[in-house]
Amino acid sequence: MLALALTGLLGTSAHSVQAENLLDIYNEAYQRDPVVLQAKANRDRAVAAIDEATAALLPQINLAGGLNYSRINPAGDSSSYNNRSASAGVDLSQAIWRHSSWVNRDIATKTAAQQELVYADSLQQLILRVSQAYFSVLNALDSVTFAKANQAALKRQLDEATRRFHVGLIAETDQLEAQAAYDLASAQVITAENTLINSYEEIRKLIGRQVTELNGLDEARFSPMPVTRTISQIVDNAEQNNLSLQASIISRDIAKDQIVLAQTGHEPTLDLVGSVQVANNNYSIDSAALTDGSSNQGTIGINLTMPIYSGGAVTSQVEQAQHNYVAASEALELAHRTMISDANNNYNNVQAAISSVIAYQQTEKSAQSALEATQAGYEVGTRTISDVLDATQQLYSAKQSLSAARFNYIMSRLQLLYTQGILTLDDIEAINRGLKRDATVAPAMSHANGTSFQPVSNTSAN
């Protein structure tokens, strides 16, 4: 389970806004996400195909019957010749030896098991996709918040620089620098708002509707925890549980069975066959009956079919299946290497994310202190307006980097669990407990088409 070291209970919110949390989005995506529903349908289809493959091993019984009437009027003869006949029968066949039918059933069973793994993998991927979409929104919300706070701070610096320029305390270049910094900050706000709008669209793609309010991360209770397992233990765990790897193993096994299936084209087949027939015939001239009889017939036997020559088709099919097996084996090797690479990368990403969170926390504190000192120096004339502008931008850049580092940590932990094949709903619930229960509504923003919505800020700019 993902450990975020989030302790304590959340108090009752005084806000009336009912924002949606990560678990809400996941539960809805579980019911409505097309990727998951498609994987589920493929699994169900594969399970149903087992019955079809098994049917070839069971008795085949068919009922047949017919009713015929014919009337003949020969030329030059006033008589009418009539024939009425009725027949019914039952045909039975039972495969005694059809190796291909047994192999087909094995393939169908393994295919169903593979599709079950694919479906389970789609559920774990859903956790990743929902979490990525959710935290992309929160990160974008932070970007908007910090961009606007930076813009507001630079606007105050611009107003102050303009005032000083008009009274002759600073040169025009200082005022122009402040104006340029403010204009850049305004452009950054536009970019951040557009990113936020697009981030909300990713959630809509998952659940089929627009979401405008989300619970943010509770930074006060957020504390990244180190990975307790070694990388060797993680790789060993992934060897046993990685769903993509397990599905590739079954794909290789199916490819091996397909070689055997192709080879059955050279083998004989043996079937038990039997039938029971009942017939009734009635012949008459005009209205006078000539014969009226019935017959019963039963047969039973064994059919043996031995293929002699099929123009090389079976040999070609065997060769194709062998090449397919080689391809499946190489695909398995690729899946194995990818799993090891992902395990190492995600492990390193978690370690780096932890260090980044700690480093950016200190960076934010240092940037805040540096800005305060720079502003004080500017007031007494020891620092320039450029110094103040740079310090302001560095502070909000540090805030944004810290926010991104927190979300990167969460996603890296989830990715590491996914690589091991052990990502579950419990991990979503653990993260969800680390979210705020209230939401702060940010100013409305406009889409390009003129419609607007109210996003939710998940943190303060201060």
UniProtKB/TrEMBL annotation:
InterPro entries: OMP_efflux, T1SS_OMP_TolC, TolC-like
Keywords: Cell outer membrane, Membrane, Transmembrane, Transmembrane beta strand, Transport
MF-aspect GO terms: efflux transmembrane transporter activity; porin activity
Localisation per UniProt entry: Cell outer membrane
A Pfam family the protein falls into: OEP
Keyword tRNA processing: no
Classification via PANTHER family: OUTER MEMBRANE PROTEIN TOLC
Protein name per its UniProtKB record: TolC family outer membrane protein
Annotated organism of origin: Candidatus Anaerobiospirillum pullistercoris
